[in-house]
Amino acid sequence: MNISQVIEIGREAVYIVLILIVPVLGAGLITGLIVAVLQATTQIQEQTLAFVPKILVVFIAIGVFGPWMLTTLLDFVNELFLKIPELIG
Fold it and tell me: How many domains are contained in the chain?
């Protein structure tokens, strides 16, 4: 196993992680923006008002996108396990 193989595996792992977090992070970001606009227009500056909706939306996004995320991660791990003989030898 040489350095270029290690770098390629690391690059692919980082890419998979970035792809997996985009839906959840995007949902939290959009929810935070909507809550911030509502807080600014109503001048209500309650911290829990900003926190609770984001947490709920993130949990819902994980529930919705969870199967896809798990399938993508398992495909990567299976591909990595199948590459072990050629990486070692």
Answer: 1
